[in-house]
Amino acid sequence: MNSALPKISICVPIYNVEEYIERCVYSLFAQTYKNIEYIFVDDCTQDGSIEILESLLRKNSDKSVKILSHTFNRGLAAARNTAIEHATGEFIVHVDSDDWIEPNAIELLVKHQLETNADIVSCNAMAHYPEGRTELLIEPKYKTIDDMVMQTIQLTLDHVIWRRLIRKSLYTNNDIRAVEGVNIGEDHHTLPRLVACASSFACIDDFLWHYNCENQNSYMQQSRGFNYKRYCSDMSSIDILLSYFENTQKYYEELQKIKMCYTNNRGARIWRK
Questions:
Q1: How far apart are CA 78 and CA 173, in angstroms?
Q2: Per-residue pLDDT tens for 148-175?
């Protein structure tokens, strides 16, 4: 790999992940693709995550790394936004700090992007649960941009912002950011808007992401079962999308149905479990 290839900004929010961050960072620094900048955002973590990160950086001084710090805990959505604001790469990759990726993940995503010129390139993932249970998370075979928007506005794991290579200009040219304060499933109101602005998308069949479902401190693990905080966050995401797609009838009507169903079922999400 050489510097003529596109620069990739890997964005990593950090908050109370001292048990997992070493595995995550090792997987990032082991990438076979070399034109990468790593952006870590310390959202006022209350544990030793940053000390562990700094220790790993001393052993990997050849990497291009930025560590950004919030002055107070602002949440996951704000951490993602901060990383994007400071990213200088042509493409964004989001990796949560309790997850990890395969060593050739970025290389394969970039290779496919160069072959297709897609604005968004996705891959498959594997979810890891307690007691060694795993589940394959397979990206749907979307037929069109319209099909992808329709499916990603659903409250499933299809709308996740991670496991994707995303052209940064989709964010900057269209003023798309996660809405600060909406932290549980913040990708639900972000990815469909990015997709709607994209010219093309692509997907590879490789399983390149490892989704950690063992971290009890994560937003998603804290929101299992009925949880009022998650319910409000999900409803906020639906309302954000309703406002954004108010002039696109089929998306707007679908979101109204989702909101009604979600309300009537007291926050029951659809999960592939």
A1: 19
A2: 999 999 988 899 999 999 999 999 999 9
